[in-house]
Amino acid sequence: MTKKTALITGAASGIGRACAIRMASEGRRVGVLDVDLAGCQAVVDDITAAGGEAIALQASIADRAAVEAAVAQLRDAFGPVLILVNNAGIAPFKRFEEITDDEWDQVFTINAKGTFIVSQVCTPDMKAAGWGRIINISSSSAQTGSVDQVHYSATKGAVMAMTKSMSQALAPHGITVNNVPPGAVAGTKMFEAGKESFKMDLDMLKRMIPVGRMGVADDIANAVSWLASEDSGYVSGQTIGINGGRIAS
């Protein structure tokens, strides 16, 4: 895997940041993409300080032209993009009865269409190489439901379904596509927003998790690292839940 180029979306913080740092620590050249360019640059600085190679990229994943420009910039810097981690997304909380058409469309445009756009833009490099890894980060909310996130959960269910079909479409080209739905991951922006919306009792939440603790971003990065490796070449179209045993699938 040394010196293969990876693109991580939503990588300015949280799970995306952890995945970018893990990829770089294993010798991959990393594109750190987010709408928050300053946040991306901070991640790049951490990577380069540790001896890795990375570049900060800015784009909304729902903007095809911006994604194409960012991928071209990454390709020019480090070569063809052979690993993609689709992590970017938004996770609003709102009562079902109050969700507007525009809010529904916005979440689907970013979470579902954006994942489609980035995957489609990166796939030609993988096809040309006869090798590729796409890892979609969905959510355990797609598996269990989420009372004030009907729109968000629906988009992540779409990502899970996309994973299955993409894996079949791209397998003849040596490209695997898998899905990681995280459970509760402490310290991320989405978790903090959820904690505020649900007024979460963290002790109660921990008691619901069989392993007895909250997840951390590195737990997700560990799974993503394996799915991006040569060792996972016979694994495709799968959902690998990282949730401390709370959801058995």
List the helices and strands and how they pair.
Elements: E1 5-9, H1 14-25, E2 29-34, H2 37-49, E3 53-58, H3 64-78, E4 81-86, H4 101-129, E5 132-137, H5 141-144, H6 150-170, E6 175-180, H7 189-198, H8 202-208, H9 217-227
Would you write up a description of this structure?
There is one protein chain. This protein is α/β, with parallel strands linked by helices. 49% of the residues lie in helices and 14% in strands. Helix 2 links the parallel strand 2 and strand 3. It starts with a strand and ends in a 22-residue tail after the last helix. Helix 1 runs parallel beside helix 2 (37-49), helix 1 (14-25) crosses helix 9 (217-227) and helix 4 packs parallel to helix 6. The chain has one domain (5-232): NAD(P)-binding Rossmann-like Domain (Rossmann fold, 3-Layer(aba) Sandwich). The chain is globular. It is built from nine helices and six strands, in the order βαβαβαβαβααβααα. Strands 3-2-1-4-5-6 form a six-stranded parallel beta sheet, sandwiched between helices. The protein has helices spanning 14-25, 37-49, 64-78, 101-129, 141-144, 150-170, 189-198, 202-208, 217-227, and strands at 5-9, 29-34, 53-58, 81-86, 132-137, 175-180.
What is the CATH C-level name? Answer: Alpha Beta
Total of DSSP H or I helical runs spanning 4+ residues: 9
Q: Structural class of the helix and strand makeup? A: alpha/beta
How many structural domains can be distinguished in the coordinates? 1
Return the string of H and E elements.
EHEHEHEHEHHEHHH
CATH architecture: 3-Layer(aba) Sandwich
Beta strand %: 5-15%
Give me the side-by-side strand order of the main sheet.
3-2-1-4-5-6
Mean pLDDT: 89
CATH third-tier fold name:
Rossmann fold
Q: List segments where confidence is low: pLDDT < 50 over at least 5 consecutive residues.
A: none
CATH H-tier superfamily:
NAD(P)-binding Rossmann-like Domain
* Approximate helicity band: 40-55%
| Rg over alpha carbons | 17 Å
The biggest beta sheet reads: 6 strands, parallel
Number of DSSP-assigned strands? 6
Overall geometry: globular
Amino- and carboxy-terminal Cα gap: 29 Å
